[in-house]
Specification:
about 450 residues, alpha/beta, Rossmann fold, Arc Repressor Mutant, subunit A, Trna Endonuclease, Chain: A, domain 1, 3 domains, about 45% helix, globular
């Protein structure tokens, strides 16, 4: 069953409904559901679907010919192969002269690598023929750097030819919930946390079984789908997986400044900068500054993908137990640490909720940016952090604190948030306190007096 991607599908359908030439570029990391999205879109439509492979130009031309002619690989029969890619593209053009036709080139970087002139050839085909046809061309790829540089980039022959681009991201928490409609919100949040919202990983989970059982089945079994997934991904995406593994492990275990990461890994700063840049382009790491952008010296790095955060925090240290079939013992050791791990995930969920409410105009202000803030509290002469700072362009801000604990949040937590809000000079400040387990009576009383908003996890899911 297909779930989510409503906005992407709506845009693709809008493009398809017209009669003019369209070129959609769809890209994103592996396992994120690009092919599934395209498959859902072209269902019951006239389409040619060609998937390039990491092979020779000749074999890619044969595969493209087969797709255009509608011959399945299983047929085992001889078929005519176009002599050149130009001839294959001409055949597509002939079919799209008067009728709407979708032509998908999946894993585009592979065909472009096998035949160095393919992007230039496609550019000429678009300019001289496709643009006057009813073709809807879809170029799809998993290599983020290639798609952004060699397809969308200014120096690419295809620059300016796309009519829409889709960077497919993992699902957020609220989309992830759709996969497990019968689970309690806490279990849905845990599933989101350990899969990072990646559709293929979510598909491994059995909605008829508890979240904890799914984690044991998919992570704590040496033969399971996700036991070595981060390492397998690195081997597919980078040339030096061991070095990247070291960098990720350093960040995941608390080294968030570049100097700290360099010390932990033994890498020179110039080499480390390359590894960090590539991890960011892959969506695995993120470079963060305080959301107000007031100091680049405060730059930190963190693992953006929560599946990677979960894996590097818990799996390597329990590998010996897992490989000896002691999943139960491994989980017994991991489980008490889950609430602390979920704290950072809950911050992401709260930000996602705020953005959703912002789009629905249900907040006391319309903010333009939201994120974390850290810096010096000059009044108290100490470093402090704010989980969420969301501000408008008219001098208003939401200042938020997020608590994923098994107990109700006390009035003291709200008082601390009130004090920290004094750091910021916004003319209107709205305090938001988010809690997994609700709030004490004293906290509710104080909020009623001060005007602070209390948002429970149950309210966020209602």
């Amino acid at each position: 069953m297909f779930l989510g991607r409503d906005r992407e599908l709506a845009k693709l359908e809008q493009m398809y409904a017209g009669s003019a030439f369209e070129c959609a570029v769809i890209y994103g990391r592996r396992r994120v559901g690009k092919t599934t999205l395209i498959g859902e879109f072209i269902r019951n439509k006239k389409a040619i679907y060609y998937t390039a492979t990491e092979t020779s130009a000749r074999e890619n031309l044969e595969s493209m010919s087969r797709a255009i002619l509608g011959i399945t690989p299983e047929a085992g029969e001889a078929f005519p192969v176009y002599a050149r890619f130009q001839d294959a593209l001409d055949a597509v053009h002939e079919r799209a002269k008067t009728k709407r036709l979708i032509f998908v080139i999946d894993e585009y970087p592979y065909v472009a690598a096998s035949y160095q002139g393919f992007s230039s050839l496609l550019q000429k085909q678009i300019d001289l023929k496709f643009k006057d046809s009813r073709l809807m061309l879809i170029l799809c790829g998993s290599s983020m750097s290639f798609m952004e540089g060699e397809v969308l980039g200014y120096k690419s022959p295809l620059y300016g030819r796309r009519t829409a681009q889709f960077k497919i991201q993992p699902f957020g928490y609220f989309e992830t919930r759709l996969f497990f409609p019968r689970w309690k919100p806490e279990e849905q949040a845990l599933a989101y946390a350990v899969t990072g919202g990646v559709p293929q990983y979510l598909a491994f989970f059995d909605a008829g079984r508890p979240a904890a059982e799914n984690i044991r089945k998919n992570f704590l079994d040496p033969n399971a789908n996700l036991f070595e997934e981060p390492l397998n991904l690195l081997q597919q995406e980078v040339r030096e997986p061991a070095q990247y593994n070291a960098v990720i492990k350093a960040i995941a275990t608390g080294s968030t400044k570049s100097s700290e990461i360099a010390d932990r890994t033994g890498l020179q700063s110039s080499a480390l900068a390359v590894y960090l840049r590539n991890l960011i382009s892959l969506g695995i790491a993120v470079k963060e500054e305080p959301v107000t952008g007031d100091s680049r010296r405060k730059t930190l790095y963190r693992i953006a993908d929560s599946m990677f955060r979960f894996w590097y925090r818990f799996i390597p240290g329990h590998t010996a137990l897992i490989q000896r079939g002691m999943a139960g013992e491994a989980w017994r050791r991991i489980q008490p640490q889950i609430p602390a791990f979920m704290g950072g995930v809950f911050e992401d969920i709260c930000k996602e909720w705020l953005w959703r409410e912002n789009s629905r105009e249900k907040l006391p202000l319309s903010f333009i940016q939201a994120g974390r803030w850290w810096g010096n509290d000059k009044t108290r002469r100490q470093e402090t952090e704010i989980d969420i700072l969301a501000f408008s362009d008219s001098g208003e801000a939401i200042i938020g604190e997020c608590k994923w604990t098994g107990t109700q949040v006390s009035a003291g937590i709200l008082q601390t948030l009130e004090e920290r809000s004094g750091i910021f000079p916004y003319k209107n400040k709205f305090l938001y306190l988010f809690s997994k387990s609700g709030f004490t009576a004293a906290c509710k009383k104080r909020a009623a007096q001060t005007g602070a908003r209390l948002v429970s996890f149950a309210q966020m899911n209602s």
